[in-house]
Protein backbone atom coordinates (compact mmCIF):
# COMPACT_ATOMS: atom_id res chain seq x y z
CA UNK A 1 0.00 0.00 0.00
CA UNK A 2 2.81 2.45 0.97
CA UNK A 3 0.42 5.15 2.14
CA UNK A 4 1.72 8.16 4.07
CA UNK A 5 -0.38 9.23 7.05
CA UNK A 6 -0.02 12.61 8.77
CA UNK A 7 -1.72 14.30 11.71
CA UNK A 8 -3.35 17.74 11.44
CA UNK A 9 -5.15 20.13 13.74
CA UNK A 10 -8.90 19.81 13.25
CA UNK A 11 -9.20 23.57 12.69
CA UNK A 12 -6.81 23.44 9.71
CA UNK A 13 -8.91 21.04 7.60
CA UNK A 14 -12.18 22.33 6.09
CA UNK A 15 -15.17 20.22 7.05
CA UNK A 16 -16.06 19.45 3.45
CA UNK A 17 -12.67 17.80 2.93
CA UNK A 18 -13.19 15.26 5.72
CA UNK A 19 -14.05 12.05 3.88
CA UNK A 20 -13.55 9.43 6.60
CA UNK A 21 -14.13 8.89 10.30
CA UNK A 22 -12.05 6.41 12.32
CA UNK A 23 -12.84 5.55 15.94
CA UNK A 24 -10.40 4.25 18.55
CA UNK A 25 -12.88 2.74 21.00
CA UNK A 26 -12.63 1.16 24.43
CA UNK A 27 -15.14 -0.89 26.37
CA UNK A 28 -14.46 -1.64 30.05
CA UNK A 29 -10.81 -0.74 29.55
CA UNK A 30 -10.31 -2.98 26.50
CA UNK A 31 -9.58 -1.74 22.99
CA UNK A 32 -12.10 -2.64 20.31
CA UNK A 33 -11.10 -4.11 16.94
CA UNK A 34 -13.23 -5.60 14.20
CA UNK A 35 -12.72 -8.03 11.32
CA UNK A 36 -14.51 -7.85 8.01
CA UNK A 37 -16.18 -10.86 6.50
CA UNK A 38 -13.85 -12.91 4.28
CA UNK A 39 -10.78 -11.24 5.85
CA UNK A 40 -8.37 -12.40 8.52
CA UNK A 41 -7.07 -8.89 9.34
CA UNK A 42 -8.20 -6.41 11.98
CA UNK A 43 -9.09 -2.74 11.93
CA UNK A 44 -10.47 0.13 13.96
CA UNK A 45 -14.14 0.93 13.40
CA UNK A 46 -14.57 3.58 10.73
CA UNK A 47 -15.52 4.29 7.19
CA UNK A 48 -16.53 6.66 4.43
CA UNK A 49 -18.69 9.71 4.98
CA UNK A 50 -22.01 9.48 3.16
CA UNK A 51 -23.41 12.40 1.08
CA UNK A 52 -25.03 15.04 3.27
CA UNK A 53 -23.78 13.39 6.47
CA UNK A 54 -22.18 15.25 9.36
CA UNK A 55 -18.73 13.80 10.11
CA UNK A 56 -19.74 13.17 13.72
CA UNK A 57 -22.74 11.20 12.49
CA UNK A 58 -20.36 9.22 10.28
CA UNK A 59 -18.38 8.23 13.36
CA UNK A 60 -21.55 7.31 15.27
CA UNK A 61 -22.94 5.25 12.40
CA UNK A 62 -19.71 3.40 11.69
CA UNK A 63 -19.12 2.59 15.36
CA UNK A 64 -22.61 1.11 15.65
CA UNK A 65 -22.55 -0.75 12.33
CA UNK A 66 -19.11 -2.26 12.89
CA UNK A 67 -19.22 -3.07 16.62
CA UNK A 68 -22.88 -3.05 17.67
CA UNK A 69 -22.16 -0.32 20.25
CA UNK A 70 -25.42 1.23 21.46
CA UNK A 71 -24.36 3.73 24.12
CA UNK A 72 -21.06 5.59 23.86
CA UNK A 73 -19.34 8.95 24.12
CA UNK A 74 -17.31 10.30 21.21
CA UNK A 75 -14.44 12.78 21.46
CA UNK A 76 -12.65 14.18 18.38
CA UNK A 77 -8.88 13.82 18.62
CA UNK A 78 -7.38 15.17 15.40
CA UNK A 79 -7.70 15.34 11.67
CA UNK A 80 -5.45 13.19 9.52
CA UNK A 81 -4.45 12.88 5.89
CA UNK A 82 -3.56 9.84 3.84
CA UNK A 83 -1.50 10.26 0.69
CA UNK A 84 -1.49 7.34 -1.74
CA UNK A 85 -0.39 7.40 -5.38
CA UNK A 86 -0.17 11.17 -5.24
CA UNK A 87 -3.74 11.58 -3.98
CA UNK A 88 -4.46 13.04 -0.53
CA UNK A 89 -7.64 12.48 1.43
CA UNK A 90 -8.60 13.66 4.89
CA UNK A 91 -10.42 12.10 7.80
CA UNK A 92 -11.20 12.69 11.46
CA UNK A 93 -9.99 10.47 14.29
CA UNK A 94 -12.27 9.98 17.29
CA UNK A 95 -11.92 8.42 20.70
CA UNK A 96 -14.93 6.48 22.03
CA UNK A 97 -15.88 5.10 25.41
CA UNK A 98 -18.53 2.43 24.92
CA UNK A 99 -20.90 2.07 27.87
CA UNK A 100 -23.27 -0.51 26.41
CA UNK A 101 -22.80 -3.03 23.62
CA UNK A 102 -25.41 -4.72 21.51
CA UNK A 103 -25.10 -7.24 18.72
CA UNK A 104 -23.74 -6.59 15.26
CA UNK A 105 -26.54 -5.37 12.98
CA UNK A 106 -27.51 -7.73 10.18
CA UNK A 107 -26.21 -5.36 7.49
CA UNK A 108 -22.78 -5.08 9.11
CA UNK A 109 -19.72 -5.77 6.98
CA UNK A 110 -18.03 -7.18 10.07
CA UNK A 111 -17.84 -10.83 11.03
CA UNK A 112 -16.22 -10.46 14.45
CA UNK A 113 -15.45 -7.91 17.15
CA UNK A 114 -12.81 -8.37 19.85
CA UNK A 115 -12.05 -6.51 23.09
CA UNK A 116 -8.41 -6.81 24.05
CA UNK A 117 -5.27 -5.28 25.55
CA UNK A 118 -3.13 -7.05 22.97
CA UNK A 119 -2.81 -5.20 19.68
CA UNK A 120 -3.44 -7.19 16.52
CA UNK A 121 -0.37 -8.09 14.50
CA UNK A 122 -2.22 -8.26 11.20
CA UNK A 123 -3.86 -4.94 10.35
CA UNK A 124 -6.11 -4.40 7.33
CA UNK A 125 -4.52 -0.98 6.76
CA UNK A 126 -0.99 -1.36 8.19
CA UNK A 127 0.28 2.00 6.89
CA UNK A 128 -2.60 3.97 8.39
CA UNK A 129 -4.45 2.54 11.36
CA UNK A 130 -1.54 1.59 13.66
CA UNK A 131 -0.38 5.21 13.29
CA UNK A 132 -3.85 6.54 14.15
CA UNK A 133 -4.22 4.09 17.02
CA UNK A 134 -0.92 5.29 18.50
CA UNK A 135 -2.17 8.88 18.28
CA UNK A 136 -5.33 7.88 20.15
CA UNK A 137 -3.32 6.14 22.87
CA UNK A 138 -1.15 9.21 23.27
CA UNK A 139 -4.29 11.29 23.71
CA UNK A 140 -5.63 9.06 26.49
CA UNK A 141 -2.63 7.35 28.10
CA UNK A 142 0.36 9.71 27.78
CA UNK A 143 1.81 10.71 31.15
CA UNK A 144 3.86 13.85 31.76
CA UNK A 145 5.95 13.30 34.88
CA UNK A 146 9.09 14.65 36.55
CA UNK A 147 12.32 13.07 35.35
CA UNK A 148 14.22 10.64 37.58
CA UNK A 149 17.77 9.39 37.48
CA UNK A 150 16.57 6.25 35.71
CA UNK A 151 15.68 8.38 32.66
CA UNK A 152 19.31 9.23 31.83
CA UNK A 153 19.74 6.61 29.09
CA UNK A 154 16.46 7.55 27.38
CA UNK A 155 17.30 11.27 27.51
CA UNK A 156 20.74 10.58 26.06
CA UNK A 157 19.18 8.61 23.20
CA UNK A 158 16.64 11.36 22.50
CA UNK A 159 19.43 13.95 22.43
CA UNK A 160 21.27 11.90 19.82
CA UNK A 161 18.26 11.04 17.69
CA UNK A 162 16.32 14.29 17.81
CA UNK A 163 18.86 17.02 18.55
CA UNK A 164 22.07 15.59 17.10
CA UNK A 165 24.03 15.79 20.37
CA UNK A 166 26.49 12.94 20.96
CA UNK A 167 27.09 13.69 24.63
CA UNK A 168 28.05 10.42 26.42
CA UNK A 169 25.44 8.61 28.48
CA UNK A 170 27.62 8.61 31.61
CA UNK A 171 28.00 12.39 31.42
CA UNK A 172 24.28 12.79 30.74
CA UNK A 173 23.57 10.77 33.88
CA UNK A 174 25.99 12.93 35.88
CA UNK A 175 24.43 16.16 34.65
CA UNK A 176 20.93 14.83 35.30
CA UNK A 177 21.76 13.92 38.89
CA UNK A 178 23.13 17.42 39.48
CA UNK A 179 20.13 19.20 37.95
CA UNK A 180 17.41 17.12 39.60
CA UNK A 181 18.23 18.55 43.03
CA UNK A 182 17.85 22.17 41.91
CA UNK A 183 14.39 23.72 42.15
CA UNK A 184 15.25 26.29 39.48
CA UNK A 185 15.44 23.49 36.90
CA UNK A 186 12.44 21.52 35.66
CA UNK A 187 12.92 18.33 33.61
CA UNK A 188 9.76 16.56 32.50
CA UNK A 189 9.28 13.22 30.76
CA UNK A 190 6.56 12.17 28.31
CA UNK A 191 5.89 8.46 28.90
CA UNK A 192 3.49 6.00 27.31
CA UNK A 193 3.04 2.65 29.03
CA UNK A 194 6.53 2.76 30.50
CA UNK A 195 8.30 3.97 27.35
CA UNK A 196 9.92 7.41 27.29
CA UNK A 197 8.81 9.24 24.14
CA UNK A 198 10.18 12.71 24.86
CA UNK A 199 11.42 15.19 27.42
CA UNK A 200 11.65 18.92 28.07
CA UNK A 201 14.11 20.89 30.19
CA UNK A 202 13.58 24.43 31.46
CA UNK A 203 15.28 26.61 34.04
CA UNK A 204 15.12 30.06 35.58
CA UNK A 205 16.32 32.98 33.47
CA UNK A 206 16.96 35.98 35.67
CA UNK A 207 18.56 39.20 34.48
CA UNK A 208 18.91 42.87 35.37
CA UNK A 209 17.09 44.03 32.22
CA UNK A 210 13.86 42.01 32.22
CA UNK A 211 11.28 40.41 34.44
CA UNK A 212 12.00 36.82 35.55
CA UNK A 213 11.57 34.32 32.72
CA UNK A 214 12.01 30.63 32.17
CA UNK A 215 14.55 29.44 29.65
CA UNK A 216 13.63 26.44 27.50
CA UNK A 217 16.95 24.61 27.43
CA UNK A 218 15.89 21.65 25.34
CA UNK A 219 12.94 19.60 24.12
CA UNK A 220 13.11 16.34 22.20
CA UNK A 221 10.55 13.82 20.94
CA UNK A 222 11.42 10.46 19.38
CA UNK A 223 11.25 10.46 15.60
CA UNK A 224 8.48 7.84 15.51
CA UNK A 225 6.25 9.94 17.78
CA UNK A 226 6.44 13.43 16.29
CA UNK A 227 3.41 15.44 15.14
CA UNK A 228 1.25 13.58 17.65
CA UNK A 229 0.84 16.32 20.24
CA UNK A 230 3.65 15.20 22.57
CA UNK A 231 5.72 18.36 22.14
CA UNK A 232 2.63 20.45 22.85
CA UNK A 233 1.87 18.50 26.04
CA UNK A 234 5.44 18.94 27.23
CA UNK A 235 5.49 22.65 26.43
CA UNK A 236 2.13 23.16 28.16
CA UNK A 237 3.50 21.49 31.29
CA UNK A 238 6.61 23.70 31.27
CA UNK A 239 4.49 26.81 30.80
CA UNK A 240 2.31 25.75 33.73
CA UNK A 241 5.45 25.46 35.89
CA UNK A 242 6.52 28.92 34.76
CA UNK A 243 3.17 30.47 35.60
CA UNK A 244 2.99 28.80 39.00
CA UNK A 245 6.48 30.04 39.93
CA UNK A 246 5.86 33.65 38.91
CA UNK A 247 7.69 33.82 35.59
CA UNK A 248 6.64 36.46 33.07
CA UNK A 249 7.11 34.07 30.14
CA UNK A 250 9.40 31.60 28.43
CA UNK A 251 12.35 32.36 26.18
CA UNK A 252 14.27 29.97 23.94
CA UNK A 253 16.89 29.85 21.22
CA UNK A 254 16.44 27.69 18.13
CA UNK A 255 18.92 27.02 15.34
CA UNK A 256 18.24 28.83 12.07
CA UNK A 257 17.97 25.54 10.17
CA UNK A 258 15.26 24.10 12.43
CA UNK A 259 12.37 25.56 10.45
CA UNK A 260 9.85 22.91 11.57
CA UNK A 261 10.63 23.75 15.21
CA UNK A 262 10.17 27.46 14.47
CA UNK A 263 6.71 26.78 13.06
CA UNK A 264 5.86 24.66 16.12
CA UNK A 265 6.71 27.51 18.49
CA UNK A 266 4.98 30.20 16.45
CA UNK A 267 1.79 28.13 16.30
CA UNK A 268 1.86 28.13 20.10
CA UNK A 269 2.13 31.89 20.50
CA UNK A 270 5.90 32.37 20.55
CA UNK A 271 7.32 35.29 18.56
CA UNK A 272 10.75 35.81 17.01
CA UNK A 273 12.20 38.69 19.02
CA UNK A 274 15.57 39.33 17.35
CA UNK A 275 18.41 37.82 15.39
CA UNK A 276 21.45 36.87 17.42
CA UNK A 277 24.85 35.30 17.05
CA UNK A 278 25.70 32.69 19.67
CA UNK A 279 29.26 32.54 21.00
CA UNK A 280 30.75 29.77 23.17
CA UNK A 281 34.19 29.47 24.72
CA UNK A 282 34.93 26.01 26.10
CA UNK A 283 37.42 25.41 28.90
Summarize the structure.
This protein is of the alpha+beta class. The chain is built from 6 helices and 12 strands.
Biggest pleated sheet: 7 strands, mixed
Beta-strand percentage range: 25-35%
Oligomer: single chain
What structural category characterises the helix and strand content? alpha+beta
Could you list the spans in which at least 5 consecutive residues all have pLDDT below 50? none
Report the span from N to C terminus.
Answer: 54 Å
Number of strands: 12
Cα Rg = 22 Å
In helices, the fraction of residues equals 25-40%
Overall pLDDT level: 93
Number of DSSP helical runs = 6
Give the topology string: H per helix, E per strand: EEEEHEEEHEHHEEEHEH
Shape: elongated
Keywords:
single chain; 283 residues; alpha+beta; 6 helices
Describe this structure as you would to a colleague.
This protein is of the alpha+beta class. The protein is built from six helices and twelve strands. Helices cover 26% and strands 35% of the residues. Strands 1, 2, 3, 4, 5, 6 and 7 form a seven-stranded mixed beta sheet that branches. The protein has a five-stranded mixed beta sheet with strand order 8-9-10-11-12. Strand 2 and strand 3 form a beta hairpin. Helix 3 packs across helix 4. The N and C termini lie far apart (54 Å).
Amino acid sequence: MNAVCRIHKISTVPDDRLRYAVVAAQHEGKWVFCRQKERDTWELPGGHREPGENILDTARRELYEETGAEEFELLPICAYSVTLDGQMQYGLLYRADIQRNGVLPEQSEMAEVIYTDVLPGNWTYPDIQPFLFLRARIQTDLVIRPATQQDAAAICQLNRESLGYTYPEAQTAYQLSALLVHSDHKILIAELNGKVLGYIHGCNYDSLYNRPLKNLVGVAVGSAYRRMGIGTRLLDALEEWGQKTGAAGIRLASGSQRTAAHMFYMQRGYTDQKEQMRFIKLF
